[in-house]
Sequence to fold (755 residues):
Amino acid sequence: MADRDDQQVVNINSQSPDDDIEKMVQDAFQHLIDSYLKTKHRKKVDIITRAFNFAQHAHKGVKRLSGEPYIMHPLAVAQIVCSEIGLGSTSICCALLHDVVEDTDYTVEDIENMFGPKIAQIVDGLTKIAGGIFGTHTSSQAENFKKLLLTMNDDIRVILIKMADRLHNMRTLGAQPANKRYKISGETLYIYAPLANRLGLNTIKSELEDLSFKYEHPEEYEAVKRKLEITKSDRLTVFDDFTAPIRAQLDSLGMKYEIKARIKTPYSIWHKMQTKHISFEEVYDILAVRIVFEPQNQTQELEECFAIYAAVSKLYASHPERLRDWVSQPRANGYQALHATMMSNKGEWIEVQIRSSRMDEIAEKGFAAHWKYKEGNNSDTEKESELDKWLVTIQEILDDPQPDAMDFLDTIKLNLFASEIFVFTPKGDIKTLPTGSTALDFAFTIHTVVGSHCMGAKVNHKLVPITHKLVSGDQVEILTSKSLQIKREWLDVAATAKARTRIQTLLRREEKEARKKGEHLFGEFLEEHSMVRDTIVMERLCELHSCKTVDDFFLLLGQEKIKLGNADFLAMKEHPSSNGGFKKLLSFGRKTKKTGKVKSEKHVVDSKSVIILTDDNIGSKYKLADCCNPVSGDDIMGCIEDDGTVTIHKLQCHEAQGVKVKFGNRICEVQWGTEIHHLFLANIQLKGLDKFGLLNRITEVLYKLLNLNIRKLSIESNEGIFDANIQLYVHDVKEINNIVKSLKKIPDIKSVSRV
Fold:
């Protein structure tokens, strides 16, 4: 599944490729074979060679947009599968063949006849859907993703190969037009990077995030990389000074170990800067120290982890609230390590990560690495059980019919949590939940019946409502009531995919019954008044009761939220047919209001066109999104709405992330014009020490120095610390940067950022 709508191809003449191209292809294949022979997998070179020859023949005469022969893509995916994920010959063959069924005349049956049922099954899972599960107007990525997950339950290698496929597509994304780059990057950040994390593919997750960042925000990406390079020598000095005593201590214990510097990725740094509204210099955890040791035997891993922690604690003071024991209780993606934050001799907090070599490989290569270790250790079932639990949850989501693709994607997204809490049942059993889970979420992990009748809980023997957020270590007892009915408001309380899926299923079941009841009541009403149902009559009734659809009308009627009476009879009677009765139509149409005005022509935009924003079209043809308030100079994108208008979002806008995933085909490239005099609304946040006259100095900078008009200013002071929010009109991003720079010069202001 190579995102062929995203990785377009060009047909070329069928003549033999020149010697340079042939050498490039053969060198890539030889590199793959050499890498495979270095692994501990059984050496099945013959079947890999057959798969390569078959794929090369099938893709003959086709190039990617980058100009390379198309076979280079399957080869690159197979190389990632082999070297970076650590899978064997079956997965390598599937990677080589993953686009054959989708893009050529060969079928899954052909693959099965030549390579067997297992390879055919995985290739089928990696092949895009021809029709569509959710209909023609929804996200094709949701359709593909659902099939992927369905097949994943049969063989997890499907999703692992898909990760390799997505990674290579991201590595070659530069050949795509801007609207495709936004779409693919958005999908990657929204679904694929969290999924890679959930599968334990930490290295791939980090690279997917960095590549998305690079293509969406190239200037910010280069700025962060440049600052990382500038501060590199300082970090090396800190690392050497901090680790020298640790090395001496571990050497004295006779341990086999390696100490590595873990540098925070550009995306992680930028994301923290955005969410915390801080500068690069204020990100304190760019450097972490990773100690990877070779245990004397498998059973002593835990003890040796804590022995190393004890040795380091003799050298540096440990932060009491930042000890994370993921050795005794692995995270839901199988990650194991002991994390502690230590105070260096120079007064800097530095995180120390302690893991065995086994834990380190699993942390980087995920489930594939786990299977390798599990083969020789049948007692090691912790990670398998976590995987099984996750797969069961995914299957439950897939078994429940989702109303549309967007709801499906959002539900899956909820289950790809990166951080977990561990809570206990009254009997002491451990339940793993995402951070932010409520008592209601916990109830649904016990059983659907328990969740659907949950009225509250006792957390650590104290009575709490269903909205109470849980933290690690809580012991939870659920309180139920048989008379309690499930409520739609619970969807705002639930944080887990399982709870939301169950609530939606129960609500749909109840609403279906209510609609049937409502339709029956309406039939009785018509019969009582000797009337028949028609389209315009139903439109009048929907308008009378403020219902958008006929189904909504029947639902409210069945729930007894509305009752039929004289007003309904009169509304229906206003539509007599020519024979004095009521006209009966077989289908319902959309309501159209006759205003006597000529309907204006819809503004149509092609998603492939490039929109240039000017003073004349901003706000008329092209609307600036209220959620992110883009300003001239921001990285932006457009989304074509149902009515043909275009909404302009900042690329990093939270709403825009959902647009990229759910409405990828509606995204269009947007650029700022060279001469824009439009005024844009900007929000500036300030924090600092509350001193006398500070507000006056702020307004002096804005009014006198910068000649700006403040639209709104709010300020709050608490125990000597002030928070201020300023809303003002600006011309462009440069002006905002000048404002931030000028305000930072005021004494006692500690941080200034655009929000």
Remarks:
- DSSP finds 28 helices and 22 strands in the chain.
